[in-house]
Design goal:
248 residues; alpha/beta; eight-stranded mixed sheet
Amino acid sequence: MTNIAVVADDIELDAPTLVEGLPGLGLVGKIATDHLIEQFDMTYYAAVDCEGIPQIAVYEGGDRDLLPPVRFYADEERDLLALRSDVPISSEAAPQFARCVTSWVDSHDATPLYLSGLPHQKQAGEVPELYGAATGDLGQLLDEHDIGSPSETGAISGPTGALLHRASRSDVGAIGLIVESDPRFPDPEAARILLKDAIDPIAGIDVNTDELVESAEEIREQKEQFAQRMQETEEAESSQAKPLRMFQ
């Protein structure tokens, strides 16, 4: 059942772009989405209470208000939505979560950008490769912005994979962005590539990513504790892209 409650009724959006920031490999989606929210000072827009989300309350430094662990933020000026999650979504809950979110996305005529990391041991100075796939007719957006197709057969797992699967099954247009990411640590550089080479041009925005480069080590340290909590949560399956060489 869709249970997403808008809390900022004064914000009006018209076919917005949605950037998804669920925890996954290298935390690339979460780092990119958190950066968007902070850079644009986006407004807490809607509480997400889909089946399967852990029933916990979140608090932020300097604020007494409690928040749900998964929520949407909005920027009316840029017609932008961001999905922030402060908890991992378990593989068991992913299908119900995907149905809930996809129904809401479709009803709001949003264009979702779903983000995933592809395990890759980068060499010093190497720029991560970025790939894109799509459902519906959104592949043309990838072509327009010169975002390449995946170089090999693979699968996107975890809740992000479930969201893309549900979009395809429901005939909802969606874009899956896949970036090479460090499989061991939070990867701000891969998140920067997602923002500059894909999210910025597709959403028609311009976000400053200098901080992601200058403060990369600090960001890694901040996100490392979250990454450890994900690893300790046995039922959580991290979103990531995986090669399917065993089937070739």
